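Team,

Forwarding the record for the chain on the shared tracking sheet. I've put the sequence and predicted structure together so nobody has to dig through attachments.
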Amino acid sequence: MNRPVPAAGAGAVSTLRAAPRPWLAPLLILLLALVLRAAAARGDLWLDEIWSWLAVRDRVHGLADVFLGIRHDNNHILNSLWIHALGLEVDGRWYRLPAVVAGSLSVLVAWQLMAPAGRVAQWLVALLMAPSFLLVNYASEARGYGVLMLCVLVSLWALECFDAACARGDAGRARAALATFWLAAMLGVMAHASYGATLLSLALWFALRLWRAPLAQATRWRRFVLPFGVPMLFAAWLSAVTYLDATAGGGPLMNAWQAAAAACSLALGGPVDGMWVWPLAGLAMAALFTEAALARRAGDERALLWLVMLLVPAVPLAAGLHQQFIYPRFFLGEVLYLLLAVAQLGARAWRHGGAPRLVCCGVLAAISLGNLFGLALLVRDGRGQPGAAVRYMSAHSHAPRIVVASDHAFRHGITLDYYTRLLAPGQSFQLLVGPPWPAQGPEWILRQDASRAWQAAPALHDAEGRAYRLEAFYPHAGLSGFSLALYHRREARAP
């Protein structure tokens, strides 16, 4: 385990008294995280979640098919296994349960990871992570990211426990920590392929720690291979059978540097795009380097981890080994470690008192306000409400066959396929890919946009001069999903 940091460590005089019930604060933090993630999980499934459901429906007939039958980057293996286990007819929100639970537990693990730095650092990391718009968003949808977050943090905790147990000669605890690390690492790789960056970061950091330690060469090798041998072999096998030749699903263009900067901005409660992204990313990097320098001076071994976790993704990005379809969610592991470093830096400022403490409070307040604004939108608007659009068309269509034209046949085709279950008996969809259209034209037109700032036109006219009026608009929170605009042919409007 890390040695306590004198400026923010357990050995320093705490400005917060220890709680008479030590379990009460972690329980409250866990409940806060769970409530926020459960609230954000109430809305309709969006495209990528439905895409996973569709892949399981069409390609999975047994467990092996999850690994071998879905060669697509939207196949988050643990999520696909969960969908297969629940079946295809349940309320879609049940598919989000593992993400909600695991994402909530990750906040509790972060609380434990900050224990060597003292109670102030624990509260800060909890207040940074529990209401984080970025973390809540991805821990409340039916994909692999919620479990990924838990595995990233448990991996660090288990590895530090293993190292500390080996140093004490406690073989029993070392074996327990080793098994925990193996489990977290293998589940992490199955949760999402981006866990590979976390595994490489931890391996490099641990190798550097061992190289600097006064140990025999054989002991160094043994202590490195024990935790990392099995997970790396498993990751190599899984990459060979599932990940390496997976098809990229595509999406809005965003290069890797933009995605990394957006992830840093979101970590500090900022926006995903716009003029504030790069300044906030720079501020996040400044905080990370400052904490790394202070921790290094205090002899904290995590100082090197903060730099390594930045280096591992930065080197391939700088070398140009990236594509245009990389998004902020791919850097969730790095964001989690960044928040640990920021919390520890904040604890140092708090314990210093005076102006540094005021700065700490001001920064925390600004981050919290940004996160709460995003959370309010997420709880209110969700990820675009395609189910609500289907219910509206079902209630206001003239004919049992509901004819719909769209600006993106693939995205709307998948969502309409899934939400056909909401139609009244006897109703069905006919999705028109493009002109030529039937003589009477489509009754409905669906349009979508990934931008939160999108303003739908109040009326449309097709090539034949038919008029369509905006009947309903369904915004989204701006990180996952799409805003939807639903237009109805004027002469076809129900009385």
